[in-house]
């Protein structure tokens, strides 16, 4: 069987997904959509697909087996509801939305419908992450430190909090997801941020320059995750875990895609991965859609817990108070 799929959005991450999809023998990318019409047409021409300006029109017109949604955070909601109304499985890039309410509503509708939906927390498909997860099961960490040290993306919507949700929700959510995967659930977060000088806090304020969040996990492990968008280019993104007799670092940088460092009593070992985790998550989702597999590692009902944690950190920083992380009432 050949799966008929479409992609809504033709930006950077959509390009990664479309490259993977185009490489699969059992996939036919039949349509793409983007309000930047010239870009949509160029991408469609390369794929032999149809181009749409409106994702909702695409969903109402095309006969599909699945759809990828790679849109800005503020654009979520109507697209997912349209797919749910058609019982159409979908893959959505993180973050799930620029807020929590939209994502929670979608999660509830998906749960009621029993519809397959996957989310792009692609680090979950790295072999180095699987190794760290096994290590943490044997020797649980006591301390976690994370860092997303980067530049400000050039797209206009990203720098406005009302559009992107902010760096913590739009980017650093990957680290919150990794921390949950490797350590477990967080019960409390206390965060702070540094805003652009002379700006008033509010929904239209610029994304903070830096932010940091302290975490207390249910296991007793302590954590701190920091974000910065002030650099000329990406410096380093990663997570450190420290336990009895060991330290582990999972990281990527401008020169290394994914690297694992383990320091213990025998010294330091370094492993680098050349895997393409985006292609791996796309393949796993397609296999699930086609009834050939069951390896969706970030279903929507799981991903919303990571989104809710990032949201709690953002609320804590904005409101200057600790926030208890309450479980999202949807089960994976």
Automatic annotation (TrEMBL):
<dbReference type="InterPro" id="IPR055170">
    <property type="entry name" value="GFO_IDH_MocA-like_dom"/>
</dbReference>
<dbReference type="Pfam" id="PF22725">
    <property type="entry name" value="GFO_IDH_MocA_C3"/>
</dbReference>
<dbReference type="InterPro" id="IPR052515">
    <property type="entry name" value="Gfo/Idh/MocA_Oxidoreductase"/>
</dbReference>
<dbReference type="InterPro" id="IPR036291">
    <property type="entry name" value="NAD(P)-bd_dom_sf"/>
</dbReference>
<dbReference type="GO" id="GO:0000166">
    <property type="term" value="F:nucleotide binding"/>
</dbReference>
<feature type="domain" description="GFO/IDH/MocA-like oxidoreductase">
    <location>
        <begin position="144"/>
        <end position="244"/>
    </location>
</feature>
<protein>
    <submittedName>
        <fullName>Uncharacterized protein</fullName>
    </submittedName>
</protein>
<dbReference type="InterPro" id="IPR000683">
    <property type="entry name" value="Gfo/Idh/MocA-like_OxRdtase_N"/>
</dbReference>
<dbReference type="Pfam" id="PF01408">
    <property type="entry name" value="GFO_IDH_MocA"/>
</dbReference>
<feature type="domain" description="Gfo/Idh/MocA-like oxidoreductase N-terminal">
    <location>
        <begin position="4"/>
        <end position="121"/>
    </location>
</feature>
């Amino acid at each position: 069987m050949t799966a008929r799929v479409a992609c809504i959005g033709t930006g950077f991450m959509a390009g990664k997904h479309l490259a993977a999809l185009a490489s699969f023998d059992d996939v036919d990318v039949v349509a793409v959509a983007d309000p930047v019409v010239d870009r949509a047409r160029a991408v469609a021409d390369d794929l032999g697909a149809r181009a749409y300006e409106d994702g909702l029109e695409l969903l109402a017109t095309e006969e599909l087996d699945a759809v990828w949604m790679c849109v800005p955070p503020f654009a979520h909601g109507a697209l997912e509801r349209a797919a749910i109304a058609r019982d159409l499985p979908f893959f959505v890039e993180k973050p799930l939305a620029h807020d929590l309410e939209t994502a929670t509503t979608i999660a509830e509708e998906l749960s009621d419908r029993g519809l397959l939906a996957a989310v792009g927390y692609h680090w979950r498909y790295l072999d180095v992450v699987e190794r760290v997860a096994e290590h943490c099961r044997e020797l649980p960490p006591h301390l976690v430190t994370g860092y997303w040290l980067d530049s400000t993306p050039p797209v206009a919507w990203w720098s406005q909090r009302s559009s992107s949700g902010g760096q913590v929700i739009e980017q650093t959510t990957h680290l919150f997801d990794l921390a949950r995967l490797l350590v477990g659930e967080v019960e409390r977060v206390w965060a702070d941020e540094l805003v652009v000088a002379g700006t008033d806090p509010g929904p239209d304020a610029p994304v903070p320059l830096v932010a940091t969040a302290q975490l207390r996990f249910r296991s007793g492990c302590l954590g701190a995750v920091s974000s910065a968008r002030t650099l000329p280019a990406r410096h380093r993104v990663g997570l450190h875990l420290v336990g009895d007799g060991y330290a582990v670092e999972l990281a990527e940088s401008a020169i290394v895609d994914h690297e694992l460092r383990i320091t213990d009593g025998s010294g330091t070992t370094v492993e680098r991965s050349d895997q393409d985790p985006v292609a791996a998550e796309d393949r796993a989702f397609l296999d699930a859609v086609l009834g050939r597999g069951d390896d969706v590692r970030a279903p929507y009902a799981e991903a919303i817990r990571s989104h809710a944690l990032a949201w709690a950190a953002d609320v804590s920083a904005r409101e200057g108070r600790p926030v208890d992380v309450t479980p999202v009432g949807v089960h994976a």
